[in-house]
Amino acid sequence: MTDRLPRLGIDVGQVRVGVAFSDPDGLLASPWKTLKRDPKKNSDLRVLVRFIVENNVGTVYVGLPRSLRGNHTESTLMAESFAIALAQDLASERVVVDVRLIDERLTTVSAHRDLHAAGVEGRSHRKIVDQVAAVAILQQALEMEKTLRGPAGSAVDRPARQSTEEH
């Protein structure tokens, strides 16, 4: 964990990617944006890399959805692949950022419930539910950082820099 740098929380879905960020002290998670998921062209990843660089983000937490029993699902594999791709894109830009996976069971369900309780109509949920879930992921990570006195979740391995020298 890098002190005094903002953190990013990401909720990866098949259609959308919710993004939240924190203040440099890691006290409060706030919604930023919902991106259209783009696994073919990776425009969502490019937007994230640019935001991370421009805002000097120190740690990125990607929500890792698991079943209620803690098993891996298709969504788990999608989130892991997204986190690895993000780490690779950051490494290719020579940006050193800690990308971590954090258990996020039920954050989307909780986000829908919170929006309903706040009086937001069901049709409007789709526009912001991913951001609300990303806020929940990031806020959980920030609380864990305080308890652990260090980073939460598990690190995504940074890709090794490939040598361009011929042997």
TrEMBL record:
Gene3D superfamilies: YqgF/RNase H-like domain (3.30.420.140). Residues 5-111 form the YqgF/RNase H-like domain. It is found in: Cytoplasm. GO terms for molecular function: hydrolase activity, acting on ester bonds; nuclease activity. Keywords: Cytoplasm, Hydrolase, Nuclease, Ribosome biogenesis. GO terms for biological process: rRNA 5'-end processing. Its EC number is 3.1.-.-. HAMAP family: Nuclease_YqgF (MF_00651). Could be a nuclease involved in processing of the 5'-end of pre-16S rRNA. This is Putative pre-16S rRNA nuclease. It comes from Zhihengliuella flava.
